[in-house]
Amino acid sequence: MQCLAVCFVLAFCTAACALENGLMRTPPMGWLAWERFRCDTDCLMDPDNCISEHLFMEMADRLSEDGWRELGYVYINIDDCWSSMQRDSQGRLQADPKRFPRGIAHLAQYVHDRGLKLGIYGDMGTHTCGGYPGTTLDKIETDAQTFADWGVDMLKLDGCYSNSSYQEQGYPMMSKALNATGRPIGYSCSWPAYQGGLPPKVNYTLLAQICNLWRNYGDIQDSWDSVLNVVDWFFNNQDVLQPVAGPGQWNDPDMLIIGDFGLSMDQSRAQMALWAIMAAPLFMSNDLRTISNGARAILQNKLLIGINQDRLGIQGRRLIKEKSGIEVFWRPLDKGASALVFLSRRSDMPHLYKTSLKELSYKTGVYEAYDVFSERLLPQLKDSTEFGVSVNPSGVVMWYIYPVAEWKKEAGPGRFSKKLIGPKSHPHANEVDAPFLLL
Ligand SMILES: *[C@@H]1O[C@H](CO)[C@@H](O)[C@H](O)[C@H]1NC(C)=O
Ligand SMILES: *[C@@H]1O[C@H](CO)[C@@H](O)[C@H](O)[C@H]1NC(C)=O
Ligand SMILES: *[C@@H]1O[C@H](CO)[C@@H](O)[C@H](O)[C@H]1NC(C)=O
Question: Which segment of the chain is annotated as a signal peptide (predicted)?
Answer without folding.
Answer: 1-18
